[in-house]
Task: structure prediction
Amino acid sequence: MPTRVLVIGGGSGGTMLANALDHRRHEVTVVSASSDHLFQPALLYLAFTGAAARPVRPERALLGRHVHLVEDRVTRVDLGSRQVSTAAGRDLGYDYLVLATGIQSDPSQIPGLAELNARFGDYHSTVAQARLLWRHLDAFGGGTIVLGQSTPVCKCPPSPVEGILLADELLRRRGRRGASRLVFLTPYPRPYPAEAVNEVVEPILAARGIEVMPFFDVDRIDTEASVVHSIEGDEVRYDLPILIPPFVGADIAFEPPDVLDPDRFLRTDRHTLRVQGFDNVFAIGDGTDLPTSKSGVGAHLEAKVVARALKGRPASFDGRTNCPLDLGHGRGTFVIGSYDRPVARSRPTRLKHLMKIVFGKVYWLSLRGWLEPVFDLYFKLTAPRPS
Ligand SMILES: Cc1cc2nc3c(=O)[nH]c(=O)nc-3n(C[C@H](O)[C@H](O)[C@H](O)COP(=O)(O)OP(=O)(O)OC[C@H]3O[C@@H](n4cnc5c(N)ncnc54)[C@H](O)[C@@H]3O)c2cc1C
Result:
């Protein structure tokens, strides 16, 4: 008898995992709130370069034929009785549950932010929001652009630095950089939290004349005066604000509720990826509280670990991160580390930038698992070394 595996969330992690499972061994169902699958890294290029391609495909087309898809929003998960309830009134049972529900932006945490993002757009939520931001950047004739993450948790940690560097590149190409001030806000003590990456990034920001305001946790925005205030007491005036909102886990009521932390991230064992207290429940991707980058690559590697565990093989996640960072002007670097191997300095090159762009092109194929041998080799060759 195949065991029933229920995957909640049809994003990067949930889709890769569902496709990796053996239909002879498992009856696989994905329940996802959206019938569309968004390739989120493309939002950066929609917002800062005006890229035209729509990075969205129907989730059904990305799943193997053996996977059942239920398009519905999960509202309640009772881990004790193994019951999942949905907005449309479905009750779904399982033998194994995998939570791959990602995170969502929550501008309501900061006074003024929802109004600000509704007016200027952002590049961490939807295609429409990213296009709105592009329209403002495209029309920007000069003044102050303020860009930063509001709080320490960020979906894709390189994305704030990528945003300011691509804004700089755009203004230079348009001949408007001289009429503009670029200010980068960060809650961290330096522009990039990991020191080795910061050694690469900070001199580039300085060379491009980008001002950095460290220790800037956004407290509130005065939209009348066009000023962002920090908890630490600093303030900055903007003409075009690009503020990455706070993030929280999916809006699902859990029983027991203490599997969630205060930001609704799932308390997850950092190696087995089991939700604490439940041997038959796993969590992968952005929605976990794992001390590693919230990235698609992380979700991919975690999906591989859970797929192995469900096949009854030894499986342990080592916290590997492997995030590409676009430095603008056709150069890139990588942020590569793991739980016990700190991120090392990686020289910016054109090849690394090209790898990021190529990955965007092969993303849809990668979801089906067809490129796994190539990825396995790549991850092996780029494995972080002991310090
Ligand atoms: C601007 C930007 C740039 C990025 N660049 C990179 C990059 O270069 N490299 C990289 O590796 N990563 C990058 N990322 C991050 C990457 O996109 C995410 O980390 C990745 O998508 C996380 O995968 P996930 O499966 O955890 O969640 P998601 O892909 O967000 O999927 C979550 C799924 O859960 C579903 N869901 C949510 N709530 C419910 C519910 N209640 N019921 C049912 N379904 C639900 C959603 O509909 C969605 O299908 C970037 C992100 C952004 C925004």
